[in-house]
Amino acid sequence: MATSFKRNRTQEYIESEIDPTYDPLDDDGSKRKAFQQKSELFMFSTCQKIIIRSYLEQDAYDYLFSAFVSFFNGIQNICENNYSWSTVELYYTMFYQLTQLLFCPSSITCVNSMDASYIPIAKALT
Question: Which of 54, 44, 39, 46 has its CA nearest to residue 105?
Fold first, then answer.
């Protein structure tokens, strides 16, 4: 199983809209704090919401695909009597499926930074 450190389209897009110069891998705490302050005040436009919804769907499909790949690899490992690795593959199947559900716009919640309330992302993106 290949390990990928690629970040999600949704995350990359939102970070680039809030502050195009922000690098999440930078260890500078003051830059991270400045980005956090910008993100708490940031309001998405209607166009940005449409783009985010599209990226959420694409990221969800990617996780679902990864779940299928892990599932079939796990089943193949069972058929080859490689039970320890099949357990890992089947664990990742569940991880990818649960992550995929988080990326479905109707099931995600986001925090409204103004009053710290949780609202469904589908409502926030309308």
Answer: 54
Three-class SS of residue 37? helix
Which pTM was predicted?
A: 0.71
Give, rounded to a whole angstrom, the gap between the first and last alpha carbons of the chain: 38
Q: Which two tokens stand for residue 9?
A: 């389209």
pLDDT digits (tens, 9 = 90+) for 99-119: 888 887 665 555 444 444 444
* CA 56 – CA 106 distance, rounded (Å): 10
What is the 3-state composition of the chain as percent helix, strand, coil, each rounded to the nearest 5? 65, 5, 30
- The HSE-up count of residue 59 (CA atoms within 13 Å, CB side) is 23
